[in-house]
Amino acid sequence: MSKIYTNNLFTRLKLVVVAVFMVCAAGVNGQEFAGVKTVVIDAGHGGKDPGNMGTGRYKTREKDIALEVALKVGQYIKEAFPDIKVIFTRKDDSFVTLAGRAEIANKNKADLFISIHCNAANSKSAAGTETFVMGFKYEEYNRELTLKENSVIFMEDDYKETYSDFDPNNPESEMFAGLYQSAFQDQSITFANYVEQQFANRVGRRSRGVKQGVLYVLNRSTMPSVLIELGFLSNSKEEDFLNSELGQVYMASAIYRAFKEWKKHREGVDLTVKSSAKVEMQGPAENVNEKEYSDNPYGIVFKIQLLSSTRKIKEGSSELQGLDEIEELHVDGRYKYVHGAFPNYDEAKKALKKVKKKGFESAFVIALKGSEPLKVQDAIKELEKN
Ligand SMILES: [Zn+2]
Questions:
Q1: Which EC class, in a word (predicted)?
Q2: Is residue 8 part of a domain?
């Protein structure tokens, strides 16, 4: 009973405040939207805040997987849209406060804020992806997750001063105090839907859908923003997937493709036509689908080795020119430079032809299981066996 009353009151209040806010926002900006220029990618947790610990079978924790996927998303966006500024709230294992994350996005006037996390639950069978937007809608509101993802505030020094107007134990009050996000909720929901569709339709993940939470990082950022939960690290199957290179490539590619869709939507028809050549030109793991992954559930991935050296080769050096998506592996004291990530040998072979045409004549296909090198024949055999 009281809940219904609160929601009604809230709705009325929200309408008034949103209207006021939108007028203010228009006045402040005073200019037309000129296309998506800046994206902030936020790898959840970091440093002394590990996030959730998963099943304990891996050394990696939520913060590590969030960072891997966040860096890949950023890399894919940069490669496909060199004019877009990609800003990371952290690029390594450092601790960033929640207030600091929102501030980075606001200071840089980002057009979109993407926060990346992994879920955990007491039930080992809990599974699936979720994408959160700021909000309080009764059926879609997840209070448990709201409290969990905000709780890092207690780890911060001086949190009482920094968050004097935000009570992590009673986040719903934030809706009345803040209301920063309401003006951007439609755009946030659009992007969140694209993300969940990509996860479900292209990567074969179980999507739990778009949810709402009163999440500090989302509420305090003044642009469309979402918080993505890639899956449950408390579920061994999902933990295996999210720890595998292939799983990370697939999830990052899905978020990248959702971004591409959202950008098109956000910019409308005119801008899309102008940039369509660039948009269609490239994009990692475009052809991911459920079948490919279910054929390869053991984290085996094929890559193309371009060259191997005892010395480190600088990024952008002439020896590595002409190819995107180059990754450096450090194996047995040598630096190996590899390209791409393919779920099966046939796709890697196809890509190898293109790579050779670009001048890397001695390139060849290698296989990895997780981060361990594996003979290509053994990798193929192992995939056939399953
Ligand atoms: Zn988290």
A1: hydrolase
A2: no
Report the separation in Å between the CA atom of 168 and the middle of ligand 1, taken as the mean of its atom positions.
Answer: 15
355 C-alpha vs ligand 1 centroid, how far in Å?
38
Report d(CA 345, CA 379) in Å as an integer.
9
Domain C-terminal end among 281, 312, 334:
281
45 CA to centre of ligand 1 in angstroms: 6
What domain range includes position 328?
296-385
> Mind listing the pLDDT tens digit for each residue in 321-369?
777 667 777 777 788 888 887 778 888 899 899 888 888 888 899 988 7
Neighbours of ion ligand 1 (CB under 5 A): 44, 51, 117
The complex's ipTM works out to 0.99
By the 8 A CB rule, do 373 and 331 touch?
yes
Out of 219, 254, 281, pick the residue that ends a domain.
Answer: 281
Report CA(117)–ligand 1 centroid distance (Å): 4
- Other C-beta atoms within 10 Å of 239: how many? 23
Residue 119 Cα to ligand 1 midpoint, Å, equals 7
Give the C-alpha separation, 339 to 124, whole Å. Answer: 36
pLDDT the model gives residue 49: 94
Ligand 1 center from residue 148 Cα (angstroms)? 8
Q: Crossing angle for the helix pair 245-281 and 236-243, nearest 10 degrees? A: 50
How far does the centroid of ligand 1 lie from the alpha carbon of residue 151, in Å? 10
